[in-house]
Amino acid sequence: MAPLLERVGPMFEEAGIAVTGSATKNHWRLSPVGVFKPAWLTLDEMVSLSDLSAMPWRKVAIVNIKGYLDFFPRFLAVALEKRRQSRHGGSDREGPCRSARELDRASRR
Q: Cys-Cys with 28: which of 36, 53, 75, 79 at CB 3.0–4.6 Å?
């Protein structure tokens, strides 16, 4: 199985999908509900840490698109707040909800 796992990362790279990780050592991926889960391969666009001892950010912004029902920013915000207050450290968070029109305007600046 291990030889096949080593081929997965390069296969994604060849397809133009940037990934982080190794089949030999897990890292930690931030789930949509704010929990860090062990993972061996993660898309580069996703938040991941090699060490859970502290998050590298002092503040984070949680932005949701109005009407997008597959993401619950409140779960993420509460989990990050609990993490900030725990011994592991964490980040202050802000949580605006923006419409697609507002995001489109912001991307044109």
A: 36
